[in-house]
DUF177 domain-containing protein (Nocardioides marinquilinus), 176 residues
Amino acid sequence: MLDTRELGRRPGSQREVTRTVPAPAELGIEILAVPEGSPVDLDLRLEAVMEGVLVTGTARAALEGECARCLEPISDEIEVTLQELYVYDDRHDHHERNAGGDADDEVSTLEDDLLDLEPLLRDAVVLALPFQPLCRDDCPGLCTECGARLADDPDHTHDAPIDPRWAKLTGLQQDQ
Ligand SMILES: [Zn+2]
Ligand SMILES: [Zn+2]
């Protein structure tokens, strides 16, 4: 939550906000996320406009997760761009909002001059994450026979021939 009272409501007034906040829970996707409580560096500019407060800036945080192919731990960093207009709540149509329900409500509002960054941050981080995080771009994944990491042991073989159905699966995995 950011307090915008200092900013005032005169259109054109601006304020830079640099601060570090603890990451909320579940900031990311199941396989790759910002660890809860880890620092998120915010570098924001708040600008008062006619309808509310325009927030632009960046957020930087650490990422922890695992490779979608070989399940090795991944440590990475993420930097996302934030941009959102928070409308003054006294200008927002509460009837329409209540009728539509919060889930359909696309308008971010200021509640008592407080600005909730969490939904904005969450959307930006989720959008920026790869659909399938990999430990490296050409990660060969796991052997479908024994589960060994092929990166560690790319040439190992098995006596039994690979079942053609498994071979097909392997092909599908490599295509992703
Ligand atoms: Zn991998
Ligand atoms: Zn194997």
